[in-house]
Amino acid sequence: YDWVIRVNPDVIIRNDTFILDVIQNDPNATALLVNCFGPDDDPKVQTDFFAIKPGVLAPNTFLNSTDHNAEYSFTNDIRNDILKVGNHRWIKEATLSNGRCRVGDKMELDETPITHFHQEEELMNNF
Fold first, then answer.
1. How far, in Å, CA of 57 to CA of 82, rounded?
2. In this predicted model, which residue has the larger pLDDT, 19 or 97?
3. Is the pTM of this model over 0.90?
């Protein structure tokens, strides 16, 4: 696969313009990520949504995760092959400023391209 995209079932991509532009037009990009803490902080990569080029990962990258937290494990797993190389792209509009690891959570729908919903009622009111 050129790209592998992971999306939680309660996450909705409302605007895929940036995502598709990177995938189709940025050959140097190796991942599309959302930082729980904001793009300028030490990363804690969200696992609600991410897209990666699996070819840049070392074999068995995810087999020895050691952290009890999914976001810290994922961040540590991709640190050497993706984050330190620097060819990843942050989806800044989906990052909360409070460090909460829910992509686009509690944001206005027109402010974030990716939204995390938990309640069916809330979801259906926005369509």
1. 8
2. 19
3. no
